[in-house]
Amino acid sequence: FYKDLFDFELIDRASGPGLAFMRVADISIGLYESPGYKVSDGPHGRIAFYVDEEDFEDAVDEIQDREIRIIHGPENIRKGKMVVFLDPDGNQIELSYPTVG
User: Fold this and answer.
1) Disulfide check for 83: which of 2, 14, 73, 79 has CB 3.0–4.6 Å away?
2) pTM of the model
């Protein structure tokens, strides 16, 4: 899901199907499957990615084209925009710009 949607490069599957390391640009991300783990609702229970302003609308279009469930937005925030959607396991993923700060 993440590899296809975000063009992440899979760099290692490590010790099994529940663990993967991916890379985008010079950032490595570890994804770990935790059966039974429940993420809290709200803004602190999601994974957030900041994107460049010029990439935001294309990203939202891609999410909609893939019929991925959007649960919030897109909406205007902090002189920018955000959208929250669900991955196949029900985890909340946020895309937004600009970065906080």
Assistant:
1) 73
2) 0.78
